[in-house]
């Protein structure tokens, strides 16, 4: 592990602790049966703190204090957990952060309901206008609502492609998907919100969004790769879960274009089966084909190119911003996206 | 049908048309595949317009114009549709407003996602502070978010009782459930929001909440009764759906206390089975037992008592409000709740 990666992980861990306490405090008021323990379950398993960390660091990079970014950071973290609950059900995932998914523990109806509640709790920190003032608070709420809508649009695309077994997809389609389902709430919104709050709405947000897109896309390609690398336990999710779920990962799109016609036909048939019909052997074979046809290598090289683009976009977005440990941390997230193992 | 009922339905139809156009306009901007047509599906099937109608009428009763109440009314109608999508999945319902439910049409993952998007679109009309001003707009948002949380708490209770086959329930437990899962967003919030906006936050809202509770409870008991009366097609839902789903209706709670020990044991076993294991014959038998043991009569008498309490609460809540067609309409909703057939 590189020194940079270690530093990034330590900084993230600090943000994760801060946000974890704030999330716990906010959810403590909820005491309803069949709901209270469910909304606390995922947050208590702990997360990387990447989204709130990026948001707070960006706010500080632009000269704002942590205190002013805290509400929006908590909001994003709660939304992330709400998305995960629904996402796990939609993907029929069995494990999350090393433990059974919420719908496995409590059944789908109660899990879906807990996700709905958590998404609402997520908006509560944004109601407080005493810290940011009415006008800025309103812009923050606008950003967050627009971000949720984009995320559901991305989710719709991903679920729709799988349901209809859409396979005529190029990397450009993958990037469109990823920009909506991942980048928007994982990197673009944290950067935009952090800059909006930190600068008191005085800097343009477009270049931050471009940096966030490349950074988030690199994050997602790494996520795709992690799902087929090493043991599932390390990653805290199902081993080879993406392949079993038929997810349109970058490796899968590459593989569909790399195999011969008869193998492709088999692969399309495999993807068209209901998930429970996909055998362990077939899942392992897809994994092996990805290795054999260079799909993993393709994805790694693709992530590298995204990182180069992220680097250029970073320079542009932070051109006028004084160097600080926060700017350094944000910059170091680029290699972190390529190297992270969890 | 009484003259009052006809008048109420005509007034509601007017509100439903007004809100229907506004909802359509708001959803028109969404054009994503696998999402746009899904979020429009339930609203286009039309609703009773009860929630937005009650909200706007209350605003007008308190002297405010329709225009000022429109955003909150549209918000509630969109939330209602979002709740229905998740609710239908959670209850494994097959029909809604006379057509297949959204998860039957598109599968559960895409339907859940459409509900998430719709719940977010529902908050957009509340962001506009130009009509109400910042302070009042913020109170409206507070009310709506608190209302969503209460609704998920009620939903959790209902789903939890069914999942764990809880049968030791009295009418008081039923009322607690109904006050959260139904009254809150169907009657209490429309009344409180309407008065808040119409009076520019100058009247106390507690007495309106009490009226709303009795009115909403009467609405829900009638809903319970409609599910076991006549043909399902009239109601637009599954015939005998509540019995098949094991819903803790007022009639079911009465029946559990009215039958002898062996019949009770059978009933508890029936309720403990997975839904798909409940035969048509058993569902019909439960319906017949309700008739035989006076459960329907009990529910009707209970609704009548709720209506009497609603009437007293109405007099209290609207004591200082000038008589108008809007006050009359709100008052006439009490008998409407007892008589409505859809």
TrEMBL record, chains A, B:
Keywords, ordered alphabetically: Magnesium, Metal-binding, Transferase
Cofactor(s) listed in the protein's UniProt record: Mg(2+)
Keyword Endoplasmic reticulum appears in the UniProt entry: no
GO biological process, one term: isoprenoid biosynthetic process
SUPFAM superfamilies recorded: Terpenoid synthases
MF annotations from Gene Ontology: metal ion binding; prenyltransferase activity
InterPro entries: Isoprenoid_synthase_dom_sf, Polyprenyl_synt, Polyprenyl_synt_CS
Family, per entry: Belongs to the FPP/GGPP synthase family.
Name of the protein this chain belongs to: Polyprenyl synthetase family protein
Higher taxonomy: Bacteria, Bacillati, Actinomycetota, Thermoleophilia, Solirubrobacterales
